[in-house]
Amino acid sequence: MVVVLGYQLYDLARGSYGMSIRAAAFQLGLFGLVQFLPQILLAPIAGVLADRFDRRNIVVLGLMLDALVALALTLGTWFALLTLPALFGIAALHGAVRTFIGPAQSAIAPNIVPAPLMPRAVAISAMSWQIGSVAGPTLAGVLFAIHPALAYAVSAALLLLAAISSARIRPAPPPPGNGDTHPLRQMGDGLAFVWRDRFLLGCVTLDLFAVLLGGATALLPVYARDILMWNGHPVGSLGLGLMRAMPSLGASAIGLIIARRPIEHDVGARMLLAVGAFGIATAGFGLSRNMVLSMVLLAVLGAADMISVFIRNTLIQLHTPDAMRGRVSSISGLCVSASNELGEMESGLAAALLGATGAVVFGGLGAVLITVMWTFAFPELRRTRRFSSTYARD
Fold first, then answer.
1. Which of 271, 264, 303 is nearest to 382 (CA)?
2. What is the tens place of the pLDDT at every residue in 278-297?
3. Which residue from 167, 202, 249, 255 has the least number of CB within 10 angstroms?
4. Measured between alpha carbons, how far is 167 from 17 in angstroms, rounded to an integer?
5. Which CATH number is correct for 2-167+185-382, 3.30.70.100, 3.20.20.240, 3.30.2350.10, 1.20.1250.20?
């Protein structure tokens, strides 16, 4: 749904509104910003709700609301009612709904998985998400070519199926005593907990700043429509779907390996190396003009990101007490969203100033620089040898 939404917005800006490539690329940046603003406002509330109510019910309700968003896009596209303001408004609503799903969904796993199995559980969960991310963009490109509304209709059906599946998870009630503290106090306690714990602070901010700069995927519509060619023609929406799928394809391949043989030694150093590799692959993609090479670099980018995400998510879950897990997950999710959505804003603004190629290369090299800085600013990260299960079953 998001892949098609971004392409549709860019195509509308270039076609119906007659914008230049740089001006339309800046619209993609604004697209990321409007998804992020509701999240920064609602993330503290979402974290508190995940620690005060049944996490499963929050996930189910959020998925059903997101299905309604997809249905609205289906009808708006079918009847040609969508304008840039309408697309921005729907994107903001989607961002708001996802804000409530993320913390509750992340906090469920330690409630139903024994601590020794958490690394494998995180790997399987991430791998399943990546497999969906491989099929989704590719299918989106094909469905969009048949009819743009069809991609949104399929999204609505799949989101409804996800809600039904989530409803079959056993209840995940909040930890005892979490309803006794004032919600505003709980928000403050969550932020203070992350701020005082340098290990958690280093984990969440590493992803925030590295991906904030290295957000090549935000500019993929530009590459698909105006830069990368196949047999003398732009690769178009189908090429966009293939490119959006390649990071997840690389991530899924690594995920299969990690699920069978989880990373167990020198986890902190490997996380830092993976983020550095992510930045290098991003810069390489920015310079490439060959479709095959570009897809390979995107797969490498995704594989490196998968290693980083697996290690970081496992460490955060195992280093957080259950009573705090919803709030810490919301903070971590906010940083991930900031890195993605604000990364799109940064990429769009940089593209308006430097061009798409300059923006992607600048971002990739910036991600490498951030990794070097965090290696020395947070020595706790590079010194982490193994996963700890201190809080997994408290």
1. 271
2. 999 999 998 998 888 999 99
3. 167
4. 43
5. 1.20.1250.20
